[in-house]
Amino acid sequence: MLEFNREWERYKRLVEEGLDAFLPSEEEYPQVLYRAMRYAVFTGGKRLRPVLTLATCEAFGEDPKAVLPQAVAIELVHTFTLVHDDLPDIDNDDFRRGKPTVHRVFGNAIAILTGDALFAHAFRVLVEGNFPPDVKLRFLKEMNNALCYKGVIEGQVADILSLEGNPGLEDMLFIHSHKTGKLIEASVVIGAIAGGAGEEEVAAIRRYGRNIGLAFQIMDDVLDAVGDEEEVGKRLRKDFNKASAVRILGLEGAKRRADHLIEEAVSLVEEVLGERGGFLRDMARFIGSRTY
Q1: Which among 149, 200, 239, 241 is placed 20 to 30 Å from 155, CA to CA?
Q2: Total domains present in the chain
Q3: Where are any strands of DSSP class E within the chain?
Q4: At 42, which CATH number?
Q5: What are phi and psi of 114, to 5 degrees?
Q6: pLDDT (tens digit per residue) in 55-106
Q7: Could you list the residue range(s) of the whole structural domain that residue 147 is in?
Q8: The whole model's pTM is what?
């Protein structure tokens, strides 16, 4: 895993540089908005989604720097979802990645507008770079599909509605595969498109993304139940009254479901990319065993 960690850090450095370059300066007016945007983005994090975009592009033989704007756009969208998810009327969280959430630092109104600004700015950044117009259109469609219709936003709504009833397995699978899985899926698909992958290869990578996206959220439920709050960096033991995989499948059942998804994802990568897919294979296994 030493090589995997080194590669992750290499991709992550690129992402950090790209985020800094594409975000507005805190010195511009209105300063409070741009401070809040940068605060939200630069509170740490694994950068898993943009790293997946860069790594997938490189696995298909292209320079990952070529897809850096698209990777940045994905992280901006992901951060928008976190800012809004933390708001009092949704999850009401005071900490994210071990630091006070945006609404706790800047107030609810600025937090809402910060999420809106990150969302809007992401689509501006998404079409940067030297790709042909038809490829940029594919990026736009992929991002839009990841968010709405039948994407992250529907998953979030279903998650809220799950508090009102007695959610079952199908509810959990819908929520997890949309609220979390769709953006992870889009991350690898955009990377594959940027890397010049053929349609069958893109379809296989999409299935890989779906599997690891669903496994990621199942492991989130496992961590919510048994994880270390300091290591995870947010409040735990709060999701058991929702459509939690642990609540529905039990702790061991949830782990088995995640393991199955991960092994299937590994097989897909090995089939499509062989040795070139080493990082994506190791990423799947990391997701299945993560502790933060």
Answers
A1: 200
A2: 1
A3: 95-96, 99-100
A4: 1.10.600.10
A5: -65, -45
A6: 999 999 999 999 999 999 999 999 999 999 999 999 999 999 889 999 999 9
A7: 2-289
A8: 0.94
